[in-house]
Amino acid sequence: MQEKIGRLQEELATKTIEAQSGGGMVKVTVNGKFEIVSLKIEKEVVNPEDIDMLQDLIAAAVNEGIRKSQEMASSEMAKITGGLNLPGMGM
């Protein structure tokens, strides 16, 4: 099982999900290791007079991306472990 888990962790590094906020004005791509692969911000949302809004949109997109990545990793891990929650597996 450890070998399968090791392979899964390698595979998850190559799988990505996309999340967005602000109606798609901020998009983030996160891999299965919960790392941000890319962050795209539409220029229309960049307003020097309202940096707080941009920060909120980025945080929302990143948090959603991480949540989706965690769900993806947990789902893939459940396929290997039969639904057992194994501590220390980083999922």
What does this structure look like?
By secondary structure, the protein is of the alpha+beta class. The chain has one domain (2-81): Nucleoid-associated protein YbaB-like domain (Ybab, Chain: A). Helix content is 46%, strand content 20%. It is built from two helices and three strands. The protein has a three-stranded antiparallel β-sheet. The relative contact order is 0.20.
Kindly give the count of domains: 1
Main pleated sheet:
3 strands, antiparallel
Quick one: how many beta strands? 3
The proportion of residues in beta strands is 15-25%
Q: Supply the CATH class.
A: Alpha Beta
Helix proportion range: 40-55%
Considering the protein shown, what is the CATH homologous superfamily? Nucleoid-associated protein YbaB-like domain
Instruction: For the record, give the distance between the C-alpha atoms at the N and C termini, rounded to a whole number.
Output: 15 Å
Q: What's the helix count? A: 2
Strand order of the largest sheet: 1-2-3
Q: Which structural class do the helices and strands define?
A: alpha+beta
Q: What is the H-and-E element order?
A: HEEEH
Low-pLDDT parts are none
| Shape call | elongated
Radius of gyration: 16 Å
Mean pLDDT: 89
CATH topology: Ybab, Chain: A
Looking at the overall shape, the CATH architecture is: 2-Layer Sandwich
List the helices and strands and how they pair.
Layout: H1 2-12, E1 16-21, E2 26-31, E3 36-41, H2 51-81
Antiparallel strand pairs: 1-2, 2-3
Features:
91 residues, Ybab, Chain: A, 46% helix, 20% strand
Give a short synopsis of this structure.
With 91 residues, the protein is an alpha+beta fold. The protein has one domain (2-81): Ybab, Chain: A, CATH 3.30.1310. The chain contains two helices and three strands, in the order H-E-E-E-H.
